[in-house]
Amino acid sequence: MRFFVEIEPPETAYIHEAAQWIAFGKVPEFYSSPEWGEEFDIRGDESAELEFLKAAVDVDYHNLPGAIPEVLSGIDLQTFQEALGTTLGTEIEEIKRQRQNYENMLGIIDERGSTPEFSEVRIQMLRENLARCDREMDLAKAIQPTIETILSYEERAKAKLFYALSAGELDAIGWHRFTQKDDNSETVRWEERSVTTSHWRMSEIDWQRANLGKREDSSPSWVAVRVNFQELLALFPQPDLPGENLTVSRYGRTLTHIGAPKSRGTGENRGKGRPLKGGGAVKTAVLNHFSKRHAASDLPEKKEAIIEEARAWAQDLFGEDLSRATLQRYLKPLFSKMTK
């Protein structure tokens, strides 16, 4: 028996997350902070520190457990993960350069002999580093075919996403950095706005950090660039990685599957995402009720307190236990109005 847990994705996806959906069907994750809690997605909250709005950089950029078994080449999953953990994804050429540096240093010692600068302890460390490089080289060579396959999927997905964004088929938003000039000074400002199609240049995209463009001081013009995830699904409903069609039973938010898959395909039977609770009526009711309270100056100052009140209100009135993330999306127009 296999088990799957239904999840609620964030409203938006960073551009590198969008590319990973297109390539592998990897659903974006919530980014939380201690202040807001694990379920509260801070990527689009302008009250959060701008540093937190930047996309997280993942050192292990091959960390795609749902996709890796499908693209493994001549190696099993456990060996691949152990090798990746040992090499940290370091490319073969970089390991060669490191090894050559250690060899050069040992060559100098062989010519001059042991000195205070090159003690026996340091010489032993250099030899151990050489042996480590040899081990990492073997591991890197073993996983290289799989990594090349992963990168091939990613590059094709990035090209598709870039075309959609630059052609206006998909909208993106981000935090734009601009200079506001006053009479005697210049001030750097940040503003969340739509990214126009003319700003898209493949050479100016920092995929890992979801940044775009270059200013005169080499800083990005846009940070935390992201797309609406539901709009992304509408344009790219089926990932490039071949899918697996399953018959499952649902128990609450848990899905179970017994037996072998019926067929392998491209995911034609994949769902379109969770429908709005109450057909959208709950969302409208929550926003209207708390907007009226805001107009009457009858709301707490902190967003977290508003969300908790909205959660209790929706539970009492509709019997719906809404998550923080859901309520954040429902109340986003109100929160934007409150910060102006």
Keywords:
340 residues; alpha+beta; 4-stranded antiparallel sheet; 3-stranded antiparallel sheet; 44% helix; extended
Itemize the secondary structure elements and their pairings.
Elements: E1 2-5, E2 12-14, H1 15-24, H2 50-53, H3 68-71, H4 77-87, H5 92-112, H6 120-166, E3 172-181, E4 186-194, E5 205-206, E6 211-212, E7 222-228, H7 229-235, E8 243-245, E9 249-251, E10 254-257, E11 263-265, H8 281-295, H9 303-318, H10 324-330, H11 332-338
Antiparallel strand pairs: 1-10, 2-7, 3-4, 3-7, 5-6, 8-11, 9-10
Helix pairs in contact: 1-6, 4-6, 5-6
Brief digest:
44% of the residues lie in helices and 15% in strands. The chain is an alpha+beta fold. The strands form four sheets. It has a four-stranded antiparallel sheet with strand order 2-7-3-4.
What portion of residues belong to β-strands?
Answer: 5-15%
Sheet with the most strands? 4 strands, antiparallel
Strand sequence of the main sheet, in spatial order? Answer: 2-7-3-4
Categorize the overall geometry: extended
Kindly state the mean pLDDT as a whole number?
Answer: 77
User: Uncertain regions: pLDDT < 50 for 5+ in a row?
Assistant: 58-62, 261-280
Sequence of secondary-structure elements? EEHHHHHHEEEEEHEEEEHHHH
Count the E strands.
11
Rg of Cα set: 25 Å
Distance between the termini: 52 Å
Helix proportion range: 40-55%
Please state the structural category: alpha+beta
Counted by DSSP, the helix tally is 11
